[in-house]
Amino acid sequence: MKKNYKILTLKILAPFIAIFLAAFFSSFVILTINKSPLEVFYTMFKFSFRRLDSIAIILYNSTPLIFSGLAVAIAFRMGLFNIGVEGQYLIGTFLAAFVGFSLEGLPPFIHIPLLILSGMLGGMIWAYLPIYLKIRKGVHEVISTIMLNYIAYSLIHYLISEIFIDRSQKLLIRTPKLAPSALMPKLHGVLALFGIELPKHVYLNWFFVIAVLLAIAIYYIVYYTPFGFELRAVGQNPEASRTAGIDKEKVFYKGFLLSGAIAGLVGLSDLMSYFGYMDLDFPRGYGFDGIAVALIGQNDPFGIILASILFGFLRRGAEGIQTLLNVPMDTIVILQALMIITIVIINKIVGDYIKRLEKKGAR
Amino acid sequence: MEKAIVLKNITKRFPGIVANDNINLEINKGEIHAIVGENGAGKSTLMKILAGLYQPDEGEIYVFGKKEKINSPNRAIELGIGMVHQHFMLVGRFSVLENIILGSEKKKGITIDWENARQVIKELCDLYNFSVDIDAKVEDISVGMAQRVEILKVLYRGADILVFDEPTATLAPQEVKELFVNLRKLKEEGKTIIFISHKLDEVLEIADRVTVLRRGKVIGTVFANETTKEELARMMVGKPVLLKLDKEEVKKGDIILTVENLYLRSESGQILLEGINFNIRSGEIYGIAGVEGNGQRELAEAIMGLRAISEGEIKLVGESIKNLSIRERRSKGIAFIPEDRHKQGLVLPMKVWENVILGLHRKREFIRYPFLNVEKIQKFARGIVDKYNVMLSSINQPVEGLSGGNQQKVILGRELSQDPILVIAAQPTRGLDIGASEFVYTRLLSLREQGKAILLISADLDEVLSLSDRIGVMYKGKIVAEFKPEETTLEQIGLYMLGVYTDKDGETA
Amino acid sequence: MDFIVELIASSLRMTVPILLTGIGAVYTERAGVVNIGLEGMMIVGSFWGALGSFYFGPYVGFLMGMSAGMALALIHAVASVTFRVNQIVSGVALNILAFGSSRFLSQVFFKMATTSPHVKGLRPVKIPVLGDTSPIIVLAFILVPFTAFILEKTVFGLRLKSVGENPLAADTLGVNVFKFKYAGVLLSGLLAGLAGTYLSLEHTGMYVEGMTQGKGFIALAAMIFGNWTPYGTMWASLLFGFAESLSFRVVESNVIPYQFIKMIPYLLTLAVLAGVVRKSTPPAADGIPYEREMH
């Protein structure tokens, strides 16, 4: 089965070629500010991998992206675009924060799962509307989710600055602090058992483990359950699926709500470890990063973990080039956007080639 | 005699297949030259080479004695070669006029010169006795008229050589006659016509000479008046073929499917099915004949539950199924072989074993909660592959890599695995070669012997006539007549298909 | 009376960016290419327009803004027409690229990530009743009948529409499908770039990050509401412009929290689409990449 190895090699190689090309094109942007692209990329590596705690920071950075990538990928599998992960996680994060600061005195093993469930619920609520509008009214989910992102921004702004503002703060606009029982423990303790000592300023926490476990669960759901089977069948040929008796709308509802529930987890790692409250500057853009992560990870859960770590590294490296070389951090935003474009083009080329190879085998 | 087109050693390869293998062909000016062959013999590849859509890998093309390279559709048009495609290449939302001039618009100032175009088209219509409504939207006109629009398109471009790809595939017998009148008129005016078909009767009727292709190669060119149908068939398939099917006498059983007074309207309120009544007994094949687009597809989809009916009743063994979901209807024992297997029958990028359980994936036997029982499913898939002799390299292969016939076998295997009581087969041999078609015929006949009820919908009248126990003819969403095959003729059915007769006594409408 | 004139004038000002981009959307979608990246093309238009005007004056500003929109559109065309990748994915990527590159370059040229200094616009023209008006507003409304004329009366328009309806048919008639799809996409980039430049030079007088506020997406909705026609798009854009301008008056009245007022255009977009989509008819081959050699 030489052909199968060839196909596998191509599939694995494709993201690397895309990353390389994206780096190549973004070099021109770096050149416009009279910096050497090689030096920039070298600095990113050096800054990121010079110490162990830096690697832990990369994993911390990658945590929300794994959730976000999985959420986007689930929708992609059905042939839908969840551009609304952005809004879904903001709503989810807020709901979790609300449960975090309004309930007190609960033991952590109840309080933390409660926050997680609220986050998922928030994401699901915000995912329900676009899928309802799509199925009942025929509104394309891309436009509706984008609109709901803007609405979520305003809504969160209102909730934080008008309703749930922490009155004890004089100058800062933010929610009250989460109860200590609502904070997610860091991984420091466990890692210490293996002789890995992390400093205090690293926030790598159990959400990273949850994200990896979730990715494994999603893998089995997508490939080995009847629901995952339906998800893929509907995504690749809705008409044939319907003819076979699969209720497409039910699959859409279930799949999109699942996507929303996962999206609701995106902001929790930041909320429940680093911040401990939600404010107007709560990180944005994870939803869009998730699209890039899902594409580079080829919608495969394990690919998504790797792509998230790559992006976590880029983020860490961006801090390095900003501090050491005075190159704007936004370089990596450009790099990520270019990666999306190069990966889809290369996937297309490789995909067409593989199709031809497989056709050859049929005769 | 002057040669319109000469092909020398034309070879065209696609990944894994040689579509045209060293083709040599001469087309005389002013003749009607038929090119026949089975599906996959390389006819349409050859045609696309002439149209400038494909480039040959090897060989030379001479047009009116000059060596030419047809490297674009534009070049083909410049050389006077015009295509009349099987699937009409028309823009539905454009008017007939816009469709005809598209790509060859004449300008007046900066705008299109509509008046001139109108004039030229009118003259063409008069010359060739075509009747078309220039301002009608193409999506509203009949198949026959759409084909005349296609012909006008190439004439408007000044084509001298007209290539017709399976022009009669979607036409009713009377429309075919009209087309032949048009073709003869074109020939009289000095046009050269290449007529691609696999219907031997028609070829023998219209063509001067016939070239037979088989597996990408030219088998031979003969004069139409010096050959016979049997000889052409032998040349096409390489061995004598059985044109008659053994149909055993089967005792009819209870009524399985009853359709009563069925109405179906589109979302915009247009009537698609109007008062359909028929039933099918066990051990019976009920054939539906009709020009495509007269409600056959909608009828199958209504029975399957893919479309909600507006009025009427559908019963399976006496029990109403009209409010059941598709899945529930399937579990009551309806199997469906859809018309478009790529769109409705298979999920092409998924593996063969996955396609084999599409729709059956929630059956208890295939589940090991909460997962799919992959081992058991693969065993089941292998069973089907063996039983139906599906040619593949692995059941893990995406089903899109299989040939059309093998894909159809996968669908048959899946649909018949659950021991259905009613089988709806829509265009079950479309696009299949003779071997695969025969396989489908014998399967359908053996289902009939097993006492299944079968609804056969087909645009191929021969197929309907030779398989069915009863035939309903559909016209404009109605079953306008019902026959036993031994009591009718092709011509009679044709008159009903076209709405010339509208009731069983043969009254003219 | 003054109140009404001012309301009309401000509605028109709000309408123009949506209208220009919406007309652009008509060109690209009638050619069969969905362009979610219009938002990004507006963003680069607003940035490069400001940059050009800052250094060389408003005329160069407009030229650079439109060119930037077109450059982004060119990437979209290469990806989605030549390489036939998913048009929505490509569009989303371009939006991110526009955001990132504008932020990056803003730091380089303006030394601030999010705003530019004040930049000059075009000299206003006098219009009866409305008074001083940006020439771009006039241009936007002239573009409506002009586009209708192009689509209905010219060879270019007929061919552009044909590649969006049935590219295979067009191809067999010798219409260069790729050329017309490129033309549609590039025109949409040009117009979105113009709309973006209008925002920074004419509307605000400076570049501000995020100043497009999703207007590129709203323009798409306006085009759908307008059933893919220039006049329909104009009426829909006027509706959005009017709603936005009205919402500002409501903010001043202080009855409703301003965060809710900000939601109005987006809620209106959702409502409009929910009410209208089922009745609208996109070009038959809209969003489907065209590939010639199939076997």
UniProtKB/TrEMBL annotation, chain A:
<dbReference type="InterPro" id="IPR001851">
    <property type="entry name" value="ABC_transp_permease"/>
</dbReference>
<dbReference type="Pfam" id="PF02653">
    <property type="entry name" value="BPD_transp_2"/>
</dbReference>
<feature type="transmembrane region" description="Helical">
    <location>
        <begin position="83"/>
        <end position="103"/>
    </location>
</feature>
<feature type="transmembrane region" description="Helical">
    <location>
        <begin position="256"/>
        <end position="277"/>
    </location>
</feature>
<feature type="transmembrane region" description="Helical">
    <location>
        <begin position="109"/>
        <end position="129"/>
    </location>
</feature>
<feature type="transmembrane region" description="Helical">
    <location>
        <begin position="12"/>
        <end position="34"/>
    </location>
</feature>
<keyword id="KW-0812">Transmembrane</keyword>
<keyword id="KW-0472">Membrane</keyword>
<keyword id="KW-1133">Transmembrane helix</keyword>
<feature type="transmembrane region" description="Helical">
    <location>
        <begin position="203"/>
        <end position="222"/>
    </location>
</feature>
<protein>
    <submittedName>
        <fullName>Nucleoside ABC transporter membrane protein</fullName>
    </submittedName>
</protein>
<feature type="transmembrane region" description="Helical">
    <location>
        <begin position="54"/>
        <end position="76"/>
    </location>
</feature>
<dbReference type="GO" id="GO:0005886">
    <property type="term" value="C:plasma membrane"/>
</dbReference>
<feature type="transmembrane region" description="Helical">
    <location>
        <begin position="332"/>
        <end position="350"/>
    </location>
</feature>
<keyword id="KW-1003">Cell membrane</keyword>
From TrEMBL, chain B:
<keyword id="KW-0677">Repeat</keyword>
<dbReference type="InterPro" id="IPR003439">
    <property type="entry name" value="ABC_transporter-like_ATP-bd"/>
</dbReference>
<dbReference type="InterPro" id="IPR050107">
    <property type="entry name" value="ABC_carbohydrate_import_ATPase"/>
</dbReference>
<dbReference type="GO" id="GO:0016887">
    <property type="term" value="F:ATP hydrolysis activity"/>
</dbReference>
<keyword id="KW-1003">Cell membrane</keyword>
<dbReference type="Pfam" id="PF00005">
    <property type="entry name" value="ABC_tran"/>
</dbReference>
<dbReference type="InterPro" id="IPR027417">
    <property type="entry name" value="P-loop_NTPase"/>
</dbReference>
<keyword id="KW-0547">Nucleotide-binding</keyword>
<dbReference type="GO" id="GO:0005886">
    <property type="term" value="C:plasma membrane"/>
</dbReference>
<feature type="domain" description="ABC transporter">
    <location>
        <begin position="257"/>
        <end position="501"/>
    </location>
</feature>
<dbReference type="InterPro" id="IPR017871">
    <property type="entry name" value="ABC_transporter-like_CS"/>
</dbReference>
<keyword id="KW-0472">Membrane</keyword>
<keyword id="KW-0067">ATP-binding</keyword>
<dbReference type="InterPro" id="IPR003593">
    <property type="entry name" value="AAA+_ATPase"/>
</dbReference>
<feature type="domain" description="ABC transporter">
    <location>
        <begin position="5"/>
        <end position="240"/>
    </location>
</feature>
TrEMBL record, chain C:
<keyword id="KW-0812">Transmembrane</keyword>
<feature type="transmembrane region" description="Helical">
    <location>
        <begin position="33"/>
        <end position="52"/>
    </location>
</feature>
<keyword id="KW-1133">Transmembrane helix</keyword>
<feature type="transmembrane region" description="Helical">
    <location>
        <begin position="182"/>
        <end position="201"/>
    </location>
</feature>
<dbReference type="Pfam" id="PF02653">
    <property type="entry name" value="BPD_transp_2"/>
</dbReference>
<dbReference type="GO" id="GO:0005886">
    <property type="term" value="C:plasma membrane"/>
</dbReference>
<feature type="transmembrane region" description="Helical">
    <location>
        <begin position="59"/>
        <end position="79"/>
    </location>
</feature>
<feature type="transmembrane region" description="Helical">
    <location>
        <begin position="255"/>
        <end position="277"/>
    </location>
</feature>
<protein>
    <submittedName>
        <fullName>ABC transporter permease</fullName>
    </submittedName>
</protein>
<feature type="transmembrane region" description="Helical">
    <location>
        <begin position="127"/>
        <end position="151"/>
    </location>
</feature>
<feature type="transmembrane region" description="Helical">
    <location>
        <begin position="85"/>
        <end position="106"/>
    </location>
</feature>
<feature type="transmembrane region" description="Helical">
    <location>
        <begin position="7"/>
        <end position="27"/>
    </location>
</feature>
<dbReference type="InterPro" id="IPR001851">
    <property type="entry name" value="ABC_transp_permease"/>
</dbReference>
<feature type="transmembrane region" description="Helical">
    <location>
        <begin position="217"/>
        <end position="243"/>
    </location>
</feature>
<dbReference type="GO" id="GO:0022857">
    <property type="term" value="F:transmembrane transporter activity"/>
</dbReference>
